[in-house]
């Protein structure tokens, strides 16, 4: 073992599990483990929890302060993991479920879109094709054809290599259908332009969010700012479950010892039986993954993910 990890016995804080990352996935993992009776330490590099779900303060034209949510600012009925997390945090009363969607067409016309009563999925949304603003009859037929094709696709790895926009063009989607229907749906759901997403992402959103379940498209809208929900209240809920939460605590390295793991967090070291890495894939490589012996390269490869 290198001198870097020659920490005196008794100086390490021990946990059953260390969770790296305090976003929604990390919060959920820590709560699940704590509820199962594990001693959990959660490490977050920023000064707040919540990851990409947060808020900031801004001034309007009159100089009045208002709180603005950013990024993951709503949920959907198909987001079962999010709904479970909201329940674990005791926040069910702090979210509204909207059973209708509201759209404005290119000429400003308003449409209220809801599921047809007593009609099973995916036909429960058939009225959307009739009411969707700015489409001609031929455009609506193209959308129906595209939706039917997407519903029948299997989510296999090969779809990640297929451009969603190219697939739509190859499957008889009109320019108006792409611009006024598909782009609206995909940008709203994925926060990305249609030409920059894969067919796999589009299939996942449409199958899970609209085509497979009658209530999947319902929106979950928070009544409080996201920073309040996933930072302040989440921190309180975690501590009530005896989770050791450490903010401003970036993880530098994870070292596999003969028994257990050593985690370097700033100038501190922790011991754990297991580590859960709940950070975005592009941040995993910032952590040095090491172990003694011939398997060190395998740990580095795991870190690069």
Write the layout of secondary structure elements.
Elements: E1 13-20, H1 24-35, E2 40-43, E3 53-59, E4 65-71, E5 75-76, H2 80-88, E6 95-98, E7 100-104, E8 110-114, H3 126-131, H4 137-152, H5 164-170, H6 175-190, H7 199-211, E9 219-222, H8 226-240, E10 244-246, E11 251-256, E12 261-265, E13 268-277, H9 281-284, E14 288-291, H10 296-304
Parallel strand pairs: 1-2, 1-13, 2-10, 11-14
Antiparallel strand pairs: 3-4, 5-9, 6-9, 7-8, 11-12, 12-13
Kindly describe this structure.
The structure is a single chain. Residues 1-11 and 293-305 have low confidence and may be disordered. The chain is α/β, with parallel strands linked by helices and 305 residues long. The longest helix has 16 residues, at 137-152. It has helices at 24-35, 80-88, 126-131, 137-152, 164-170, 175-190, 199-211, 226-240, 281-284, 296-304, and strands at residues 13-20, 40-43, 53-59, 65-71, 75-76, 95-98, 100-104, 110-114, 219-222, 244-246, 251-256, 261-265, 268-277, 288-291. It is built from ten helices and 14 strands. Helix 1 (24-35) crosses helix 2 (80-88) and helix 4 (137-152) crosses helix 6. 35% of the residues lie in helices and 24% in strands.
